[in-house]
Amino acid sequence: PGVKPGTAVLDAAQAGPADSGITVEQFKQDYRNKVERMYGDGLERVSDLDKYNALVSLVRDYLAEPWLNTKEKYRRTGAKQVYYFSIEFLLGRLLGSNLYNLGLNEVCQQALSELGLDLRTLRQVEEDPGLGNGGLGRLAACYLDSMASLGLPGHGMGMRYRYGLFEQRIVDGYQREYADDWLMDGFYWDVRKPAEAVEVRFGGNVRIKSNGKTQYIHEGYETVLAVPYDVPVVGYRNGMVNTLRLWSAEARLSEVVCAPQGGSDCQKAVEYSQTVEELSNILYPDDSTYEGKALRLKQQYFLVSAGLQSIIRNYRENNGHLREFPHKIAIHINDTHPVLCIPELLRILLDEEQLTWEEAWNITVQTMSYTNHTILPEALETWPEDLFRTVLPRLYLIVRDINEYYCRSLWEAYPGDWDRISRMAIISYNRIHMAHLAIVGCHSVNGVAELHTDILKNKIMKEFCDFSPAKFNNKTNGVTQRRWVSLCNPALAQLITDTIGPRWVEHPQELAQLERHSADTAFQHHLLKVKLQNKVALAKYVKEKHGITLDVNSIFDSQVKRIHAYKRQTLNVLHIMALYNRLKENPLLDIEPHTFIFGGKAAVNYHIAKNTIKLINSLADLVNNDKSIRDKIKVVFLENYNVSLAELIIPATDVSEQIPTASYEASGTGNMKFMMNGAVTIGTLDGANIEIKQAVGEDNIIVFGLTAEEVLAYYRGGGYNPWEVYQDNERLRQVVDQLINGFFPAAGDLFRGHFDSLLHQGDHFFVLKDFASYEAAHQVLDERYKDRPVWLKMCSANIAHSGRFSSDRTFAEYATDIWHIRPDTLPFSASEKQIR
Ligand code: KOT
Hints:
By secondary structure, this protein is α/β, with parallel strands linked by helices. The chain folds into two domains: about 80-90 and about 130-475 and about 810-835, 3-Layer(aba) Sandwich (Rossmann fold); about 535-795, Glycogen Phosphorylase B (Rossmann fold). The chain has 33 helices and 25 strands. Strands 1, 4, 7, 8, 11, 12, 13, 14, 18 and 19 form a ten-stranded mixed sheet that branches. The protein has a six-stranded parallel sheet with strand order 22-21-20-23-24-25, sandwiched between helices. A hairpin with a 1-residue loop joins strand 9 and strand 10 (about 215-220). The two termini are about 45 Å apart. Residues about 10-15 and about 830-835 have low confidence and may be disordered. The site of 1-beta-D-glucopyranosyl-4-phenyl-1H-1,2,3-triazole (KOT) has 18 residues, from helix 6.
């Protein structure tokens, strides 16, 4: 407790192209002044938190001018604006990345050091804004960085949750959840914009007035005030600052006390304010199961309505008629959570702008695009019609109209095929299918990796794809190399720059030039040194935080991600148990020392996942305290995995575990971050792993297990028989039995649920089926590691071929194919930076 993941500091030699124009002397003076003005005290007398806040405030001052200029330029040029709506943005700490992108990192570091301060320490003061669960939210954050760095006029629309994703603490091996009070010490990056607040309406009823033209009058609703907070999003050394607008729900109590619904009763007013503020209080802490709660639906509408109102208000100030809207505005919805954008835009166009249905519908479809991030059936959002009608009566009528309009066109295409029409309808069996609404109301639907898109097109959304094939396309995910290499692994970034020059930071495809150096002894020697240095840093953290000593010469093998049955942390555990058993049988067994690193949060009500955490910790207790195996293996579960911890673990990792049941992981993005940092993947042929294999070649990745096709074929045949596999493999039988036979001394029946799901419930995720092939893959890995030059060549190949997995590439594709933005028309001309 109390130990926060550290941060690395860039080397001065890494200065890139543009210069901030601020000298070290100037910085020092500005900083001293800032501290004095903010705190009325001298730099020597204020706390680290004060020093950090003053530094943020100073950086904010420095970026004010480019922020203003960017907005001004957008207004002047009338460039098409993209709004990326997402219920989650998992930003991570901002001080380092903003300094880096502003080109101020070296100046700041030097200035602080001359003042006797350490930038690294101040960066660690920052709370990690955890406004997301995992992959989907972190992807949104990478995309903000890429849009700004590519010179794309693209902004985020999100929620300013009062409490972020829960803080995980491990107590006696179990996960305990604590509130993430990330705003407690203030958040100095955002600007509150009360003058731009808008009202969002809930409940009530709709009266239909018909005098020549039908009018819908929404009455008796409750109003919630949505207040925006703008966070600057700095582009990499291009003078560009976009905006992430986060919405917060507030009650205007003064209004309530006088208003009829509050009466004059103060108590009622306070209660009212609590229900209102509840809206943006918490982030739903589950990224795989759909929560059918009214509050969640309200959150979604709150974001959508507030966001759209502010876009339209801004549009009206700068443009003419809303008919031109799709030429000036693109709205992207990050999975179905913001899909109410579709009926809400229709509502505005119909009720407020008095457009015809045809006109309004065409504008909406041309404006909207949608990304699907999962095929997990339990994550699919469907709302009960009744609930939807009660919470959003006007939108309900609109969704019904969309459904009718759509079903009519289905009827024309498939006359008489009622079954198909009811399967494809937006409303069926009293539920509203949000993915169907998204497909119908958007001009583009994309998956996040080639396999995932294929599964969408040929299976999950097949009938929709047959009906409108042109909508469907793939955009393989990417991550920003600026945060995930330059910032978190400055020593590697330096080595790359020394080897091929600095252009790779903006043109990651140029990393391919490293291939020529991959067998070079001097390069390999440096790479090894960098990895060791990062392992030492992680080991230091683990020692301080968990009291466990790691052998930095062992293989660091990491599986860090949300805990989920399909991600198969259990497969990893069973393999470690088998390795441990082999060592117990033969203490002289010649194996490479291994450190198995786990991290990740389990959803609060996901009992088996929470038990998996206990299982990992039980294994860690057993293995780490067994002297007889002489530290050949260590197991650690690192508490509270978040962006900052990822920044520490990923650069220190040798082996990246990407082992989901094939077909389940839509893409994965951790896989890309590890590869950029020179880790070798052991993985299944799923999601982006397949494309990683294509990029690095089969010698530079270790794949194993069933393919997606095989998995899907088993499902069609009713599953497989895990008993046969269990009977045939003695080592596997031993570890499965050990889940319940007292091998974990204090566990009792704790892991019976795991045991049963593997043996008695059909092993839905093919853990036993893939075990032997996983074990064999690990043996190959160890063989390769023994031959250090071969291993280092593999590591280099992974770095060299990671350019394709940059979010800059992904978003250049989104811009051209989906939003129809030509790079050469951009105000900050990104064309020069295009990488395809
Ligand atoms: C959660 C609830 C509903 C719909 C989707 C999700 C979701 C999907 N949350 N995270 N994901 C992950 O998104 C990543 C970015 O595309 C993928 O790499 C990953 O495979 C998804 O699991």
